[in-house]
């Protein structure tokens, strides 16, 4: 007698292997999609420190500056108008 260690015991191994394979494939797909997707709710990572123009634009976007203040500071930076 084999007491469950014969063919019947190994008959389910193909199912376990298939489930593991599917899990690995799903994990790889999720990781690739997340790494390639644009970040949502996060600021883009820049290389280096932000420029004065970038900081000025952010302050204006947050409403910390009026349009007149923004134009004056932009003019002082040499950025136009």
Automatic annotation (TrEMBL):
Residues spanning the membrane: 12-32
InterPro entries per the UniProt record, alphabetical: MFS_trans_sf, SHOCT
Keyword Glycoprotein set for record: no
Pfam families xrefs: SHOCT
Keyword match Transmembrane helix: yes
Domain of life, source organism: Bacteria
This protein's UniProt keywords: Membrane, Transmembrane, Transmembrane helix
Domain SHOCT: start-end pairs: 55-76
Protein name: Membrane protein
